[in-house]
Specification:
37% strand, four-stranded antiparallel β-sheet, single chain, 10 strands
Length: 172
């Protein structure tokens, strides 16, 4: 893979011969775009709104692929020293800029959540021309166990012609 950085907006483009991925460290490490270089087809949803207000997840740009951590639904931490702390709507990672680093042919983005004494990191690289591999590290830097829920949160592009094909044995 190849890596290019766009200094005007801070986005990083990671590409193979057939796919490009745009990573935006300034927008919570979001993968903004995943696009076929052959056809120009965008695989991730692109939010058509231009005006955003409010503090909730849905009040903001929902384009692409973000990370939900340390929770998905808004809630408070259940116990211990962290009891009662707000865990955020769709977590706490999407609201703030992340650190970014180019490491050879991979892009490493990370975010510390000091209020929870934890660290979240995602490494993105093309394993092959058609496979974007994402590797994660979640580290608890506190002195007591940390309860969390993690969810990858890709919003896929769809149209009236989109079909989902599921295995026959899948009944629920």
């Amino acid at each position: 893979g190849r890596v290019r950085v766009y200094p005007d907006d801070g986005c990083i483009v990671l590409e193979s011969d057939i796919v490009s991925a745009v990573i935006d460290p300034q927008s919570g490490g979001r993968i903004r775009s995943l696009k076929s270089k052959r056809t120009g087809r965008e695989f991730l949803y692109q939010d058509p709104r231009r005006d955003f207000s409010g503090s909730g997840y849905s009040d903001n740009d929902t384009s692409g692929y973000c990370e939900c951590f340390p929770t998905v639904a808004r809630c408070e931490y259940p116990d211990g020293r962290r009891r009662g702390m707000d865990m955020g709507d769709h977590g706490l990672l999407w609201q703030e800029p992340w650190l970014s680093e180019i490491d050879g042919d991979s892009v490493v983005v990370s975010k510390s959540l000091p209020q929870f004494a934890c660290f979240f990191q995602r490494r993105s690289q093309f394993e092959s021309a058609d496979t974007l591999r994402l590797d994660y590290i979640i580290r608890n830097d506190g002195d007591e166990p940390f309860k969390y829920i993690y969810s990858a949160h890709p919003l896929l592009y769809g149209s009236e012609h989109t079909r989902f094909e599921l295995p026959q044995e899948m009944t629920e």
